[in-house]
Structures are given as C-alpha cells and as structure tokens.
Amino acid sequence: MPARRGKADDPTTKNAILDAAAALMVDEGYAAVTSRRVAGEAGVNSALVYYYFDTMDGLFIALFRRGADRSFDRLEEVLSSPQPLWDFWEFVHDRSNSARTMEFMALANHRKAIQAEIAEYSRKFRIRELELLSTVLAGYGLDLGQWPAASIVLSLSGISRFSETIAVIERELAALEGPRAPR
Amino acid sequence: MPARRGKADDPTTKNAILDAAAALMVDEGYAAVTSRRVAGEAGVNSALVYYYFDTMDGLFIALFRRGADRSFDRLEEVLSSPQPLWDFWEFVHDRSNSARTMEFMALANHRKAIQAEIAEYSRKFRIRELELLSTVLAGYGLDLGQWPAASIVLSLSGISRFSETIAVIERELAALEGPRAPR
DNA sequence: GTCTATAGCTGGATAGAC
DNA sequence: GTCTATCCAGCTATAGAC
C-alpha cells in the first residue's frame, strides 16, 4: 500500500491555488481574491486559475466546498471528545474560521451562484450542530426547556468575536466541565 | 420660526449620494458601491462623489457615521417603550440593519480607515446595549446571574437571520410581555 | 499543464470648463 | 456646485505557443 494520503494535502497546482485563495480571503477579504493575486501567491500563472476553475465564481465555490467538508468533519470529532463543549467552543471561536464564514456570507450577498451553495450547507450544518449540542447537554443532565440549546449555538457561533463575552462563556463551560485541560 | 427640519432629511445632493450608497450597499453589497453607480442612482455626476467626500473611503465613513447615529438614537427610544424587549428585538432583527452591519464588518476587514471607525462605535454600542437590557430585565424581576443579559444581547443581535430561532425567541418574549401588541 | 499576450471592461481619481 | 473628458490601474477571460 503506497503511503499516499487523501487528496486534501496533495501539493498539486490546484490545491496550491485553493490554499492561496483561502489565505487571501481571510487576510484581506474576498475582494482581494483576484485571479492575478491568487496566482501570484501560489507561484503560478493566472491563466491556470481559469484552466482549473473556469471562472472566479468556480474558484469560490470550490473553496467553499473544501472548507465546508473540513468543518463538517471537525464538528463530528467534537462528539467523541472528553470535553465536547470546550472543543465546540474552540471550533466556532476560531478566528480564521469565523473570518472565512463572514467573507463568504458577504460574498453570497451579491453572487447568486454562491448564495445557493452556502444556503444549502449552512442549513445542514446548523441542524447537525443543534443535534450535537442537545445530546451533549442532555449528557450533563441539563433539562433546560426548549430554547437553551438553540441559544447556546447562537451565542457561541455568531458573536464570539465580541471579546467581552468570552470570559462569561468560558466561566459557564468551566462550571460544566471543569477548567480547560491542557492538550 | 422656519419649518426647517434637522439636517437628516435635507434633499441636498450630499444626502442623495449617501442615500443611494446606503441602498446599494444593502441590496448588492459594498462592492457595488462605486462612484459611478452611486452617482447614477442619485441622479448626479460621479465627480460629485469626490467633491463631497474626497475618496470612496470618505464616503463609506460618512455613511457609517450617519447610520451609527441613527441606530444610537433608536436604541435610546427602546427604553421608553412599554414593551422594550419587543422593540429591541425588532430593532436588531431588522433585515436591512443587519445586512448593513455585515457589509460594514466585511468592508472593515480590508480597509484600515473604516476598521478604526467601526471598532470605536461598536464598543460604545454594545456597552449601552448591555446597560439597557440589564435595566429592562431587572425591571421584570429577573435575577438570572451574570450571563443572561450578555447572552440575550448576543442571541438577539447576531444571528437573527437564522429563521429557526425566531419562533423560540418570540415565545420567550411573549412570556414576559404578552403577545405583541399591534402598533 | 503551463505560459505569454492581449482584448475588453470597470473603477478611482483629477483637471478644467461652465 | 455640477458637469465633461480623460488618465491610469486592475480585473476577467480567452487565444494560442510551447
């Protein structure tokens, strides 16, 4: 059996372009993701962007799908963690992840092809998120009526950039799972 | 005393440009806010954008300040409402308002001048928001520890676009204030 | 697969007439 | 204040050589 890994880490030109696009998008926003700049960062010619993705929208959609698949995998891993809420918190709290999400939402606001792609994914993601959190909270013996799970998803997911709230949320987590264990 | 109103509704060219920019930003995203398109919507020449605002960044900052001032005024009005939570909810839940906020945050991600402007404002806004909600909740005799006010601000403010949660939140509001009264 | 070259367009910004 | 005219930069996308 060859030591070949999955496609994700292949050092192909296609992946190099996607990596460059991802970095640009988080650092400077989607408006900075142009064929020339992406190609420059990836160290290839700009015509290759169109060779692999046809259009810039094609590149954005491929980029979104790659990130969405990874997020989904990461979400599933949370369930098997000994401190699932901490893991979940760190997942949604991740800076580059939320920056990425925000850029794609802004992008979707004025690109129809991307809008459809994102709507479908986020619907599935939020459903799974809620299932997962409900399971976890029930495991802690919490019977909080019907809105806490949704509320917690909302609180954790959306506005974690507001630093004042971080301490508050982490205090709640510590009450349930004890202080964050070193990894 | 002349019937002259405040500056806000003046049918000046400057205001027409700001109005056109605001509409474009909400409908098609900040990337659609170009000097030519703004001028076209406002029915004036594109050179006037630079005459009044020097640069496109200048236009964005003026636009943000106008919106921020209005939001602040509207937030204060909530306090004197007979159903402050409902009013607050409708305020943050307002579609064009949250679309506007998202666009500016995305814009701030890659425009330094705008970033500074927004950071300052949103700090002040969130503080006032929390003061207000704490007061209101205390008025309902709720003693919810230290995180509910923050949590409610977060839930209501950020993710109100997730339509699944709207019903849940509105149920909570109805329990406190009764069903929404007709205006 | 990867490159060069280029067509065709749109945008920010300015100069200067009225 | 408002307009016309224009410069220059940067972008998407394609054709075609290697």
List the helices and strands and how they pair.
The structure is a homodimer of 183-residue chains.
Chain A: H1 13-28, H2 35-42, H3 47-53, H4 56-79, H5 84-93, H6 95-108, H7 112-139, H8 148-158, H9 163-177
Helix pairs in contact in A: 1-2, 2-3, 3-4, 4-5, 4-7, 6-7, 7-8
Chain B binds a DNA duplex (18 and 18 nucleotides) through residues 13, 34-36, 44-52, 55-56.
Could you explain how this protein is built, in words?
- Two copies of one chain form a homodimer.
- Chain A is mainly alpha-helical and 183 residues long.
- Chain A has two domains: 1-54, Homeodomain-like (Arc Repressor Mutant, subunit A, Orthogonal Bundle), CATH 1.10.10; 56-177.
- Helix content of chain A is 73%, strand content 0%.
- Chain A is built from nine helices and no strands.
- In chain A, helix 3 packs across helix 4 (56-79) and helix 6 (95-108) crosses helix 7.
- Chains A and B meet through helix 6, helix 8 and helix 9 of A and helix 6, helix 8 and helix 9 of B.
Short synopsis of the structure:
The structure is a homodimer of 183-residue chains. Chain A is built from nine helices and no strands.
Structural class of chain A: mainly alpha
Rg measurement of chain A, Å: 19 Å
| Low-confidence segments of chain A | 1-6, 158-164
Q: Biggest interface between protein chains, with counts per chain? A: A-B, 30 and 30 residues
Query: Helical percent range of chain A?
Result: over 70%
Calculate the terminal CA-CA distance of chain A, rounded to whole Å: 32 Å
Number of helices of chain A: 9
Q: Could you describe the largest sheet of chain A, including whether it forms a barrel?
A: none
User: Strand-and-helix sequence of chain A, N→C?
Assistant: HHHHHHHHH
How many domains of chain A, as an integer?
2
Give the amount of beta strand of chain A, in percent: under 5%
Coarse morphology of chain A: elongated
Oligomer: homodimer
Mean pLDDT over all positions of chain A: 78
Total E-strand runs of chain A = 0
